[in-house]
Amino acid sequence: MILDAEQQLDPRSVALNRVVGWYVTAGISLALIVGSVVLLGPRRWYWCLLIWVAGTVAFGWFSYRWAEIAYRHTAYRVDADGIEIKAGVFWREVSNVPRSRIQHTDVSQGPLERKYGLGRLVIYTAGTADSKVELPGLAHETALQIRDHLLPRESADAV
Questions:
Q1: 84: Cβ–Cβ under 8 A, 6 or more apart, which residues?
Q2: For residue 4, pLDDT beyond 80
Q3: 152/121: higher pLDDT
Q4: Of 35, 36, 39, 106, which cross-links 122 as Cys (Cβ 3.0–4.6 Å)?
């Protein structure tokens, strides 16, 4: 892990987000065909088919391209003081989490993230409205290294 340099997410996150996009596209495609048949009626099957094909192709293309666009606009930087996360395509968001505010960190993996060897770093902070900061799309090993780096080095507990 390189400290104090801006890093991109793992490239495998693009493939993962595309797979998730295909699942969402399949659900929307089903809703489009059912909704168009309900609204237009089965007698206008050609319009139903046209709406279904156009909507499915458009949303499928969008979800395929969006994974790469979002990847290009997401970065993070870890240094001795904490972590900075930059994300967002249209509305950019920069989150700075100083080590002094971190209460605890987790690394989680869903089934698809596990398949791609990716993990999600979850940082819990003290006393703010945004008390949970997530950084998905990291290699699992990298997420564990960042988690260990962000943990307090000295115990301040009196117990």
A1: 76, 77, 94, 95, 96, 97
A2: no
A3: 121
A4: 106
Domain hosting 31: range is: 12-71
- Report the distance separating Cα 94 and Cα 133, nearest Å: 11
Structural domains of the chain, count: 2
Q: What is the pLDDT of residue 154?
A: 65
Q: Are residues 144 and 118 in the same domain?
A: yes
* Its pTM surpasses 0.85: no
Are the C-beta atoms of residues 72 and 92 closer than 8 Å to each other? Answer: no
DSSP E strands, the chain: 7-8, 75-79, 82-87, 93-98, 102-108, 118-125, 132-139
CA atoms within 13 A on the CB side of 115: 8
CATH number of the domain where residue 103 is located: 2.30.29.30
- 68 neighbors 11 (Cβ within 8 angstroms): no
Residue 97 belongs to some domain of the structure:
yes
Residue 65 and residue 84 share a domain? no
Q: Are residues 47 and 96 in the same domain?
A: no
